[in-house]
Amino acid sequence: MARRSAGPREGPARIxxxxxxVLRDLGLxxxxxxxxxxxxxxxxxxxxxxxxxxxxxLRNGVLEVQADSSAWCQTLRLxxxxxxxxxxxxxxxxxxxxxxxxxxxxxxxxxR
Length: 112
Known about the structure:
Elements: H1 15-26, H2 29-45, H3 47-50, E1 53-59, E2 62-67, H4 70-78, H5 80-91, E3 98-103
Parallel strand pairs: 2-3
Antiparallel strand pairs: 1-2
Helix pairs in contact: 2-5
């Protein structure tokens, strides 16, 4: 019985090309994406905005952002389209598709 060839063999894959697929298979791709957003936060939004808010969770492409005051929470809501554009420019495909803002509790813990 003759052996059938599986077809032409490709060279080894680069690790960087494999990581996203492995993370996706493990269900960790959104966690890795959230980490990239966090690492780029100040660079993407500027130090003034970043000093008044921080990303806290990413769920189905919606980034939850904690603001330090009600005034900043309202300002961020009004500037959401601009902020999304800045994040898209900095992160490309890793940028969130929407933003959701919450006010931080006085002790820094998110209200439930």
